[in-house]
Structures are given as C-alpha cells and as structure tokens.
Amino acid sequence: MGDAMENEKITINLGHVDLGRIDLLVQEGFYANRSDFIRTAIRNQLTAQADAVARSIERHTLELGLHDITRIELEAALQAGRMLHVRVVGLARIAGDVPADLARQTIGSITVLGALQAPAAVKAALADRIS
Predict the structure, then answer these.
(1) CA gap 111, 105 in Å, rounded
(2) In whole angstroms, what is the distance from residue 15 CA to residue 113 CA?
(3) 31, 32, 92, 108: which could join 88 in a potential S-S bond, CB 3.0 to 4.6 Å?
(4) Neighbours of 33 (CB within 10 A)
C-alpha cells in the first residue's frame, strides 16, 4: 500500500468454493495473488459503505487515521489538570518515551477501532481504560 501506517495481519476462513473462485481469478491474471483480491474486495466494500462510516465517525466523535500521543501532549494535559479521552478509527500510537505513570494520570480512556501501539508498560497501566 505504501502509506506511512503499518499493515495489520489478519486471518480469515473461507469455504473451498470461494477460495477456488479467488484462485481462478488470480490464475486468469485479474489479481496478483489472493491477498490482492481480498484487499481489493475490502476496499470496494469500504467505499460502498463510506457514507455510513462517515456518519458513524461523526456520531461517535471518532478521529479517523493516525493519532500520535506524545509525552509533551500528556505533560501539558497533566499541567492543565485534564484527562484525555482518545477515540480513533485507525492507528493510535503512544510514544515510546511516555512513562506508564504519566499515561495513567492523563489518559482517562482509549477506544481504538484498528490498532493501538504503545510500550508494554503503558498498555499494562491503561489495561482497564482500553476498549
């Protein structure tokens, strides 16, 4: 895909007939491989459902894409006495230099539909706040 975000690997189960049909399309040159077919099918469905996704993101006040949480941002929140409530569709990353205690003091909740990348100690400290 070539974008800045990392890809997430998933596993799916398909019936033999569907798998055979995909293999036939690959063999006939319509797709480079099975993964190419599956990525294309997913993108087509996401495009077809784009309006519903946009309405849902707006309704739930979710941020779409990449959200980086830095130590500076958390230190500023701590100084201001406010808790962050992170809601992301995509990838949320907590910087590697964020101490677990700072994250615990400043992040009230994290909801990520996609992937969360954070140091293990930070994930452990926020385990009861991650959904």
Answers:
(1) 17
(2) 27
(3) 92
(4) 11
